[in-house]
Design a protein that fits this description.
globular, about 140 residues, alpha/beta, Alpha/beta knot
């Protein structure tokens, strides 16, 4: 499965880059992952293929459990996605913007708390890794 995590802004903090690198390494066993950085939400939106299934992380989104992400998105996309590219979008400090929200297949949220977009980037990768482990029936909660 090919997954793109598209973000607005660059990851500057060394500790967050180290965490991202760790999850990118772990995800190699489960998918082909591309993490792209864009200067604006408009540039991110322009990069999304028209055939992509786009999931945006937004404060207005649906809060999902890890199991719901695994079985409701990852497993379903793997079996019914028809080979469509799977994209996860993370906005910058100002969020995703109306056009990207409208284009999204679904909006997701980590809950009602505000979380820095740079940290959300790492959280998305961690949840993708956890989701693939859940789908495969592998232990995931004691690492």
């Amino acid at each position: 499965m090919k997954i793109t995590v598209a973000t607005v802004g660059r990851l500057k903090e060394d500790y967050l880059r180290a965490a991202e690198d760790e999850y990118r390494k772990r995800l190699r066993a489960y998918c082909t992952l591309d993490v792209t950085e864009h200067k604006t939400t408009e540039a991110l939106l322009a990069a999304v293929p028209s055939t992509a299934h786009l999931y945006g992380f937004d404060e207005r989104g649906d809060p999902l459990s890890s199991t719901e992400l695994a079985n409701g998105i990852l497993a379903r996309e793997a079996s019914h996605g028809g080979g469509a590219p799977l994209w996860f979008a993370i906005g910058g400090a100002d969020g995703l913007g109306d056009q990207l929200r409208q284009r999204a297949t679904r909006l997701l949220a980590f809950g009602r708390m505000t979380i820095a977009h740079r940290l959300v980037r790492v959280l998305v990768l961690e949840q993708l890794y956890r989701g693939f482990r859940i789908v495969r029936g592998e232990p995931y909660h004691r690492e």
